[in-house]
Amino acid sequence: MQPIIEVTDLTYMYRSGSGKNVLALNGVTMQVYRGEILAITGQNGSGKSTLARHFNALLTPKSGTVIVDGLSVADKKNTAIIRRSVGMVFQNPDNQLVSSVVEEDIAFGPENLGLPQAEIVDRVDWALESLNLGAYRHRSPNSLSEGQKQLVAIAGVLAMKPQCIILDEPTAHLDPKGRCEVLENVLRLNRDEGITTILLTHFMNEVVHCDRMIVMDQGQIKMTGTPRDLFKLADQIKALGLDLPPASQLAHGLKLKGLALPGNILTLEELVNSLCQLP
Amino acid sequence: MELTKNITLGVYLPGKSFIHRLDPRTKIIASGIIISLLLIIRSYPAYGVVFLFVAAAVLIAGIPAGYAFSGFKPMLPVLIFMWIFQLFLYSSSDAKTLFSWWIFSATDAGFHMGALVTLRVIFLFGVTTLLTLTTSMVSLTDGLESLLSPLKAIGLPTQELVMTMVIALRFVLILAEELDKIIKAQMARGVAFDRGNFIQKTKKIFPVFLPLFISAFKRAEELIIAMEARSYTGGRHRTKMKTLHLGRVDLEAGLIMIAFTALIIYLILITVPPI
């Protein structure tokens, strides 16, 4: 597979409020492959947001390189093209919606691209349709639930037809229902539209659905692999301050108690199947 | 929401009336004309015509009369105060004294001046309320952007200004809710906002606004990053999803406005002002 984003030996330092230099990223090397859905996880302050902000040129590397679709992020001339191909959704939907009308907010991105009017209308219709928001198009985002607001934010990015969408903890502000709604839609967009998706999250039951995962700690990548391979290493995951997905956690506990379960259980369904096959 | 109760200015009542269907630019210009006329009217017959005109507009727009009047309620003390102020303080050389009290004397000139000023404020408020009741904020800003666009030639960043307004409108409610949350949080920790004299009450307001400002700045910072991530680079290369079109209703409204303006100017010219 061909990478859409290639990060090589990226280091980023910033000056904290008390004047100390903080090393937010320390020699990060990684790739994001076309069409995949990649989870980046880690504790607060592990550097995952800082890393993701390099992907669409919100930050530029202090040292090392970030190449997006063949273009270097460090070159200011590429910024506009990179932002067009890599969209970003943030944590708090209230702080990223611009307009008091849903459809106008979704049109904001395409309007910024200077597209012709008919094309903007087509894209807004398509984005509303893709996320089943048609019924809300004339409503104010203030009248929607938090989960729906976040879907509007995703639609706003989708309408720019990016090749890749970064979601920076999109479900952290949501209730369980909203979380489910957003995750389902993100997975569907990846599957149906083939949009490369990077999901930054704390929730391990979201990571389970991703093709690959990266675990970060103190500005470094500590683990890379498929969720199935990594969640086998329960002790390492816990040492990095993370939890296991609920089903894996339970399976791990049962194994310690002496049940002969396989080590790579991720979902409740798999756990039930394995338990039924026990002699 | 307690903070927005009883405020009709800035509220939008959706509808399909003649006035609702007008292009926002037509409505803004018409309101502008009426407001400028109000500033020069000094006669009661002319105010009578303005009253009929505005009342007709309210009826056509289908705004319930009770709702239209409720907006004036919070203004009532100010209006009365203003009228009394003019009654005692305005005077001219040939004014007749109506009655005197201590060092104040009320003259007929003051009486009329008070009445005219009060009427002016009532109608100014009425016309702007009518505009916002029948025009959504989004089309209002679209109209404003279109009307201001000639000023781009002299270097005024009209698109950026209008974008600022659009965002401000979106955050009014969010910040109002936040303010409510802060007030409740402080009440939960024992602050009694309704007790104490005026100065004590005012003092209690400061610790409420400080957290509100801090949170507003934080929100602004996040919003800037989100807008940048969506390729916003200012107004220059932007296009618009919706463009405004003048229709038949706008032509009709234009003709009505010309007739109305002519009538008012005629009335101003033929009637002798009371002062």
In short:
Chain A has 279 residues and is α/β, with parallel strands linked by helices. Chain A has helices at 48-55, 79-85, 102-112, 117-130, 146-158, 176-193, 204-207, 227-230, 234-239, 246-256, 268-276, and strands spanning 3-15, 21-33, 37-42, 63-68, 71-72, 86-89, 164-168, 196-200, 212-217, 220-225.
Per-chain topology:
The complex is a heterodimer of chains A (279) and B (275).
Chain A: E1 3-15, E2 21-33, E3 37-42, H1 48-55, E4 63-68, E5 71-72, H2 79-85, E6 86-89, H3 102-112, H4 117-130, H5 146-158, E7 164-168, H6 176-193, E8 196-200, H7 204-207, E9 212-217, E10 220-225, H8 227-230, H9 234-239, H10 246-256, H11 268-276
Helix pairs in contact in A: 3-4, 3-5, 4-5, 5-6
Chain B: H1 18-21, H2 24-40, H3 44-60, H4 65-70, H5 76-89, E1 97-101, E2 104-107, H6 108-134, H7 137-148, H8 158-188, H9 198-229, H10 248-270
Antiparallel strand pairs in B: 1-2
Protein described:
- The complex is a heterodimer of chains A (279) and B (275).
- By secondary structure, chain A is an alpha/beta fold.
- Chain A has 11 helices and 10 strands.
- In chain A, strands 6-7-8-3-9-10 form a 6-stranded mixed sheet, sandwiched between helices. Chain A has a 4-stranded antiparallel sheet with strand order 2-1-4-5, with helices on one face.
- In chain A, helix 6 links the parallel strand 7 (164-168) and strand 8 (196-200).
- In chain A, helix 3 crosses helix 4 (117-130) and helix 4 crosses helix 5 (146-158).
- The longest helix of chain A has 18 residues, at 176-193.
- Chain A starts with a strand and ends with a helix.
- In chain B, a hairpin with a 2-residue loop joins strand 1 (97-101) and strand 2.
- The mean pLDDT of chain B is 86.
- Chain B contains 10 helices and 2 strands.
- The longest helix of chain B has 32 residues, at 198-229.
- A two-stranded antiparallel ribbon of chain B has the order 1-2.
- Chain B has one domain (4-270).
- Chain B has 275 residues and is mainly alpha-helical.
